## 1
Amino acid sequence: MERIKEVADSMMISNLIYMAQESTCEAVRQRYLDQAILLMKKKREGRQAVNYRNLIFDLDGTLIDTERAVLKTWQFTLKSYHYYYSLDELRCVLGITTKNAIAMLHVTVDTQFEEKWIRNYERFAPEADFFPGTKEMLLTLKSRGCSLGVVTSRYREEYDKYFRIFRLEEIFDRIVCSDETAKHKPTPEPLYKYAELEAADLSSCIYIGDMPTDIECAKNAGIAAGLVLWNHSGILCREADFLFHTPEELLELL
């Protein structure tokens, strides 16, 4: 009977997230999300909480608000190849590698594209910053003795050039970049790489991101998945185990 209730609750949560995703009214959308989050919390009540000691985060759109900087860079770089997109039309490239984004856009570029993109990002990089409350949340987790890491689709060169300013090495134990694995999100290889380097038990890990590819990556690796809503992107994913409206809500998980 308990198992049946658990399955029924999971279906209800999935349906609520789906209805929120399909809703065109923000107030109704929010009510569906609130109900989904409430059911998620009730599912955890009365049960021993999983000891998530390894919290792994996506970077862009999850901790650092880079969306406009990234989209403007794509727009600017593609113009040099005589492709003209609005920022909204380019949202499909968020959260995936440059190679996959080029394939998705069906554009023809040369071998210098990535180099140009990285160079052009410098124009817009100053627009990026921590989402409100995320840095404080990370420091609180660190003070509690949690192991913190990053798995990102950014190349190491991009990270070194544009993210050192955030001094993330003072917070995170490990940062895995895109060029450190042969395969990328949504395959599980980046998370497996992180677990290998940190000697982390996968059952103690949770991966937190802002895109369906992040959730799929976590699921493919067999670990818990958290979707952040604090970036106000409107993106939802029914497969997420947790939804976080604010960074403070993530602290309640532990």
## 2
Amino acid sequence: MPARAEFTVEPFEEGNPGPHVQAAIDALSPYGPDIGPFGTAIEGSVEIVFHAAVDCVRAAMDAGASRVSVNMTVTP
């Protein structure tokens, strides 16, 4: 089943994303992320997207994020 997850990592300062944002992007890089100016998204099977979300949240929090918002959508 296809899924999409969008991630926002905070705190966020435009032009200076910080190590916690870079850690999230690095954790998502094996999944082929779509990196945007205010968030990053990935698409794939539910299983892949779920594992990517866990990797992203863990990496961002370990690197100092105060909040990681995840919006996951499953398409039947």
